[in-house]
Sequence to fold (381 residues):
Amino acid sequence: MEEQTVIEDPYPHILVSSKKELHGWWKGKRECTGERLLINPYNGCSVACIFCYARALPAQYFRLFNEKGIVTVFKDFDRVVAHQLDSIRVAACGYLSPVCDPFQEVNDRYRLSEKIIREFVERNIPIEFITKCRVPDEVIGLIKGQKHSFGQFSVSTSREEIRRQLMARGASLAELMASMRRCAIEGIPVVLRVDPVIPYLTDSESELRAMITEGIDHGARHIVGSVMDIPLKIAKEVFEKFRRFGVGFVYDLERLYVEKIDGYLHAKIDYRKRIFDRMRNLCDRLNVTFALCMEYEVIDGVPVGLNREFMSSVNCEGVDVPIYIKKGEKFIPAADCDGACLRCTEAKCGIDDLAMGRGGRTDFYLRDYRRWSRQLEGGNG
Fold:
């Protein structure tokens, strides 16, 4: 990797140019029901959760973050995204971001997340964000005008003193809840992610109830849950960081985390199912929907998703977002459908590949969106 100048303010980072392309969910096992265009304007994250799995990702800029704590900012990435959006006539909801917080400190300086959201909304393409940080006013102003756009907010505890030990930065719980309320007041669908639950630390019924009820009180109508998983590559480092909660605590974690699935350590399946049953029952009693994020059990050597057992919503993110197609200068919903492409067998949107309930691929790239666009225009694909 070419040597770059490190900029210290507001957090150590470098600026690089990139023409990386929008793409869908990664190849392999998938529980995500809706199709998405994944967007990562930043590699690395100053929120610095002690369980952060981005530190285990193999791409060069994630390695830089893990080894030196330097965030990579993709300079003018909003223009790259805009050019790519103008090259397609079929679009899924944007996903900002699957790995690193879009509103972390460097975004205060470069505002790439706001600029990217604007590019989507000005074309009337839906976009969602996932954050542990305060949401900028500009983002709320932009998203509230797009019918299917929404926000997800992640918490791991209801106790501020524990939150500060789990992550170096990010919004306080009060600030995060305030952002949720601001979104809800403006009519933006709000999702609370209890993600991840930390075994033996934030998994009691009283704590789960506190997180969920607080989220509901601030506008959430759907809850996403997961139990912490640990990349094998950095497991030793993660367990060491949890020593701040006691040597005995780490000993208990190590005895619980014995299941290996595709390079990750998972808590024993009986434990996880007990937590998910508790969360689902809480959500049912509180009249909100519930789903899991990337939770699996191994059956006959094959990872099988647990949403089949615990999900109460149509889509795992709790918001039904259809595929959009371009008509004139703007995009519009392709069909009156629930957007659950993973289970779809009808392809009301006109894109047969996205009827994944029939079998076939579940990973798509910009070239696929361009091919579908040509098909809609009457080309040969």
In short: The chain is about 35% helix and 20% strand.
